[in-house]
Amino acid sequence: MKKILIFFLVFSTSIFAQKKVEVDLSNPNSTIYTHLYFLQSNSYEPAKAATTIYGFEGEEAENIAIKLKQILDGKGLKVDFSKVPSDAMFSDTTGYVIGNRYVLFPYQMPDIYVERIGGKWYYSPETTQNVNEIYNSVFPWYTEKLHQIIPEIGHKKFLNIELWQYLGLIILLIVCFILFYFLHKIMFFLLQKIQFWIIHTSSDQIKLALKKLSRPLVLLVLMWFVQLVLPSLFLDLNVNTYLFLGLNIMTAVFWIYVFLKLVQVVMSVYSDYAQGTHNKLDDQLVPILNNFLTGIVVFIGLLKLLTLFGIEPGAVIAGASIGGLAVALASQDTVKNLIGTVMIFLDKPFHIGDWIEAGTVVGTVEAVGFRSTRVRAADTSIYQIPNSSLSEMVVNNKGLRAYRRYSTNLGIRYDTPPELIEAFVNGVRKIIELHPDTRDESYNVEFTGFGDSALLILLNVYFKALDWGAEQSSKHSLHLAILKLAANLGVEFAFPSTTLMIEQFPEKKVSNTAYNVEENRIQQIINEISNK
């Protein structure tokens, strides 16, 4: 029995000896593990940790190794050894460094890295030479003096945090509350000054947006202040890791909030500008731009949040690109409509309120949306035209006409004497010249041809009013004036008809219309038009 116990004791001892950690500088993983393992409280051997420092020996190398660990702990940077390469010939291809090097935290602390020197891996000479500079950038100037004045009782721990550290966190929280009260007013004042300097105008909506914007900006300043002071408390690595992760998440969220509020401020200014212009298409651009910019801010903010949880930015961007390509392929019509929307706002083929003809659609443009344009027809029905289709159509914009053209033919009886035809044409010309709604320098009134049942007189005029209702009112007054002229002259308008002329019929005479072609009478009627 004793032999069996001795056997198990020797066997377990041999297993424990096999698992004993020794100095290993053969690859990046082993070197970093050697450095951090021998500086833990339960395996504290700074001399062995100092073997990872190249170019220094003894106490100086130990101090450098200790400072490197304090820097990582102070920033809450915890090494995930499952991601550290174990390849002795590892070559960094991330673009941060070139050659057989490995950067522990390329985004948070790019100056600390290991490299292969003489077949072994050490902390680089650049890292060890700059360790004091890095240390001073992480820890405030008062850190060492603060630790010197802490009494022994302050080092007692509760939940892995020393009492003086609890006191430091409470004091830091109180200072942040006091700073927030004063900085909020200062920030709002500065934002107002910047706003007046940029646009020279203000409104209640802009002031409200600036007031909301000042709060997260102050909180961002306080987050930076906390991150600057926090390392001086020398909290445990695990505590610092969670604190800095929380601070970074809050910072990212606040930045998202700031940019969203900034979008609101910009859109408020642009909305005021758009309302002051005659072009109503600018008003339609406000909600589209607002949604677009909001989407960009949220998208970039989410990417940033994902990187905080250890996801590589390159992988996030690549995944977003692949996902975006898949979505684009699955929704080609939506992408085409989006491009069509951009082209409409760039080319501006019409404005809100314009009367357009686009294919078979005729009506007034009411709204230009992110995907489609709404057109109201004359019967008040609504057409929703996809912007991709509308951007490729031939659009006849009646709303951009300088004048409204009106052209028609006046048909008078075939038996009208030439004298009355000439008098009627001159009278219509006089009416157009004196009409308040027509262009007197551009019109046509001519005897142009012989129709099936009437002599055709071309009437071509241009109305000054662009509104459809005003055009109809102008036509009304013009038509009445022509009818009165015809009645006074005795000119009759022809009906679509066929006249059968019979030269000889018992007891019947040929029907002839009696026209009064007295020259003085005709001249008097023409003169009366000018006197009205």
UniProtKB/TrEMBL annotation:
SUPFAM superfamilies for this protein: Mechanosensitive channel protein MscS (YggB), C-terminal domain, Mechanosensitive channel protein MscS (YggB), transmembrane region, Sm-like ribonucleoproteins
Keywords (A to Z) from UniProt: Cell membrane, Membrane, Signal, Transmembrane, Transmembrane helix
Source organism superkingdom: Bacteria
Chain segments annotated as transmembrane: 163-183, 217-235, 241-263, 284-303
Domain Mechanosensitive ion channel MscS C-terminal: 409-490
All copies of domain Mechanosensitive ion channel MscS, residue ranges: 333-396
Cleaved signal peptide residues: 1-17
Listed Pfam families: MS_channel_2nd, MS_channel_3rd
Topology in membrane: Multi-pass membrane protein
InterPro entries: LSM_dom_sf (IPR010920), MS_channel_C (IPR049278), MscS_beta-dom_sf (IPR023408), MscS_channel_2nd (IPR006685), MscS_channel_C_sf (IPR011066), MscS_channel_TM-2 (IPR011014)
Annotated compartments: Cell membrane
UniProt similarity note: Belongs to the MscS (TC 1.A.23) family.
Name recorded for this polypeptide: Mechanosensitive ion channel family protein
Organism of provenance: Lutibacter holmesii
